[in-house]
């Protein structure tokens, strides 16, 4: 089981590495395209500036050359440019929104922002040195956000894929558990019927009836276990039950069947607490926590089970004096298949979590844990 989980974890890491590689390649390729377009726009503005310089010069230019230069100037229909003289006055603008050019103060702010971008080309005109300020075109600005959009889409895709496959996997797992549980209940049922018959026959014999009573208790317990297994995967029926009495009955039964080195204490702040409860499945949770606590204490220590009513909730605490649970494992212990024991399937706590949180709409978690004081599990149920 542990090797299987290790292999599964390695596959997850491979998946994360592939996703990360896709991100890196996407960002790198998109950024490369943006930089190439930026260089292309810079060359176009350089051509624009050079055309202005040549047309304004005193050199003789034939009509074809002039037409070509004018065409270079007119071809710039996307890149915002502003021609500034050596005194800082705005001589001309191109491809800047009219709402800005018609407002002198806004135009000055816009040109100042251009200057801050440090995209300036110097030109020599008859009246002296001038400067062409320019900004990225709208298309280039939009393309700069393209990598982020691609990453967001990839994240959404993988998020949806993860949710979908997790839902499918959890559904399959639920069906598998339900099938195994019902088959187990069926297999237990046949010999259990025989055992119940033998108990009835033993009652008629002239033997020590105390032994028969104890055997009958264990047979009844097996019947309860079979009933629990048969309910896994089915819609849980919650009925009005006394939580105090149900918990006390379970604690009494388990305390008689664990090591005598374990001191078991049960307390409650009320004598009765009636809530919607599936008594059989809830008892399973308490049993599991008590048996885990016994293993953690290596059959020697103190096990406290207490119930406290708090507002709309009732709180069940199961505390032991064992060796504690490392912080990094406190979330993992509720995962199916996770176990620190040499023997075991690692399903007890995952089933306990399912019973409390899915069937009873409550909460179960590690309240606190340390090597010095042991571990405390907390269950919260609605009244």
Automatic annotation (TrEMBL):
Range of residues in the leader sequence: none
SMART domains: HATPase_c
Transmembrane segments: 12-34, 145-165
Domain Histidine kinase: 183-383
PROSITE patterns membership: HIS_KIN (PS50109)
Database matches in InterPro entries: HATPase_C_sf, HATPase_dom, His_kinase_dom, HisK_dim/P_dom, Sig_transdc_His_kin-like_C
Catalytic activity: ATP + protein L-histidine = ADP + protein N-phospho-L-histidine
Superkingdom of the organism of origin: Bacteria
Pfam families (UniProt xref): HATPase_c
Record GO terms (molecular function): ATP binding; phosphorelay sensor kinase activity
UniProt EC number: 2.7.13.3
Keyword line: ATP-binding, Kinase, Membrane, Nucleotide-binding, Phosphoprotein, Transferase, Transmembrane, Transmembrane helix, Two-component regulatory system
Record PANTHER family: PEROXIDE STRESS-ACTIVATED HISTIDINE KINASE MAK3 (PTHR43065:SF10), SENSOR HISTIDINE KINASE (PTHR43065)
UniProt-recorded name of the protein: histidine kinase
Species of the source: Algoriella xinjiangensis
